[in-house]
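ok, trying the design again with the full structure, not the truncated one.
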């Protein structure tokens, strides 16, 4: 599944390993779950892209972040991301099922308002569930893609990330 996320947000390779600790980029911070690491960190002017994934895994449990130093309409951003994500996954031979339309919610310690959509992807690895979440934080627009097999450990890791999101 990780290779599909690479297609979706075009990340480059380099690895930094962290235990349960705080990670911050462009003022947005969150807790990296124990046993997970920051990977694929790429910086460009006014933006940063990275993933947080389970160490030693197959790359199937991942939280991929894109942080850009602009504020944009969240609903439009999430809808265009959904279309690109589905296009990338379909081109790679996977099937995507959107579980619902775009919904509004909150995320993190600061209760950032979100636009979000849930999905199921079926590929040769098997079914994986996830969410695409867009929110504004610290003067930036953040896109977060959570994806992995449905399990208690993944749910706990994703909760560690999403519940700890805040501005530094």
């Amino acid at each position: 599944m990780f290779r599909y996320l690479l297609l979706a947000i075009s990340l480059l390779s380099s690895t930094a390993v962290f235990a349960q600790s705080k990670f911050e980029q462009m003022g947005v911070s969150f807790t990296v779950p124990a046993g997970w690491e920051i990977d694929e960190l790429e910086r460009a002017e006014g933006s940063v892209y990275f993933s947080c994934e389970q160490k030693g895994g197959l790359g199937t449990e991942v939280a991929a972040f894109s942080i850009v130093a602009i504020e944009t309409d969240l609903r439009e951003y999430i809808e265009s991301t959904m279309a690109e994500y589905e296009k990338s996954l379909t081109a790679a031979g996977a099937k995507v099922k959107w579980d619902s339309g775009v919904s509004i919610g909150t995320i993190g310690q600061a209760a950032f308002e979100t636009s979000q959509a849930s999905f199921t992807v079926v590929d040769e690895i098997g079914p994986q569930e996830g969410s695409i979440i867009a929110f504004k934080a610290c003067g930036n627009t953040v896109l977060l893609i959570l994806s992995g097999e449905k399990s208690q450990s993944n749910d706990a890791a994703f909760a560690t990330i999403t519940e700890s999101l805040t501005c530094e």
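Keeping the full-length input from now on. The two ends are 31 Å apart (CA to CA).
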